[in-house]
Every structure is written in C-alpha cells, then in structure tokens.
Design goal:
Blueprint (H helix, E strand, L loop, with lengths): L9 H11 L7 H26 L5 H12 L4 E2 L1 H8 L3 H13 L3 E6 L2 E9 L1 H24 L2 H22 L2
Antiparallel strand pairs: 1-3, 2-3
InterPro entries: HTH_MarR-typ, MarR/SlyA-like, WH-like_DNA-bd_sf, WH_DNA-bd_sf
Keywords: DNA-binding
Protein name: DNA-binding MarR family transcriptional regulator
Length: 172
C-alpha cells in the first residue's frame, strides 16, 4: 500500500458488499463517493454541533448569524435570510424570533416600505458571530490537517462540479 493511502474504512466494506452482490461496476466509484460524502458531512456536523454546543450556541444559530454578518450593513429581509440558509419562511420566522429573544438580532421597519422589515444583527449578535466563527475555524483547521493544500483545491473543485450538477437536476 502506498504511504499516503489511508487504511480501509467502512465505506470500502460497503462497496465490496455491493460488488459481491452484483452491483454495477461502472457506478461503484460514485457510490463510494456518495457514501463518503454523507459520512464526512455527518461527522463534520457532529463536530461543529459538539464544539458550538459547549459554548452555548447551536449550528443553525451560527448559520443565521453568518448570513447576517456577511450582508451589507449586517441586515437582510426575512426572504433574503430564507434564501441564504435554505429554509422555509415559517422556519426562518421561528428562528429569527429565537435569535431576537437572545438579543442577537432585531427586526427593523424598512423606512422605504413600512410593510417590510429588516433583520439586523445587534452589537451582541456581532460579538457572538465573531466568537462562533473562531470556533468553526478551529474545526476547519482540523480538516486542513488531513489534506495538503493542493488536494483541498482538487476536492473543492470536484465537489463544486457535483453541487452544480445536482442543483441543475433539482431545478429541472
């Protein structure tokens, strides 16, 4: 086995079982990739939830704060929040209310249209966002330890292509 080849894992065993069961050899590589993507995504989410939870924040809160922190003037309409975090309007409304209760966001009337509101980060929300980003960055540093920068670039490019391909299928 080459020096850089990691040891076999549970996905290798799953793919071997599919192969023995007469699985289509042409798709075994994609099947292996699919299994690993789901497992790594799950492992990453668990690591993030664990780290954030130890500091009193949930992953969804970080995602909402991040969307607002990236926005011009740190504010978005509820519809823009919905698009940024890919949730339904009911879920976004509920989550905005919860963040508002924590003092991290506020609802501001749109001066140009009194029927509309903006969701804005408060000073405490900005502080919490920055602290949460630091926690998330530590987890991402762990990912970076597993691969060299060139491999990270190759994997990112490949995943971007898969994402565009699958997103295109959803829009058909």
């Amino acid at each position: 086995m080459p020096v850089n080849t990691p040891p076999r894992d549970a996905v290798d065993d799953l793919v071997d079982a599919v192969r023995r069961g007469g699985g289509d050899e042409r798709v075994l590589g994609a099947k292996s990739l699919s299994y690993r993507l789901r497992r790594v995504a799950h492992q990453l989410e668990l690591a993030m939830r664990r780290e954030l939870s130890a500091h009193g924040i949930e992953l969804w809160e970080l995602e909402m704060l991040a969307a607002l922190k990236r926005a011009p003037e740190h504010r978005l309409t509820p519809g823009q929040v919905m698009a940024a975090v890919e949730l339904t309007s009911g879920s976004v409304t509920h989550r905005i209310t919860r963040l508002e209760a924590r003092g991290w966001v506020r609802r501001d009337k749109d001066p140009g249209d009194r029927r509309s509101v903006f969701v804005s980060l408060t000073a405490e929300g900005k502080r919490q966002a920055l602290a949460s980003f630091a926690l998330k960055t530590e987890i991402e540093r762990e990912i970076a330890k597993a691969l060299d920068p060139e491999t990270i670039d190759v994997v990112n490019d490949a995943l971007r292509r898969v994402s565009h391909h699958l997103k295109g299928k959803d829009e058909q």
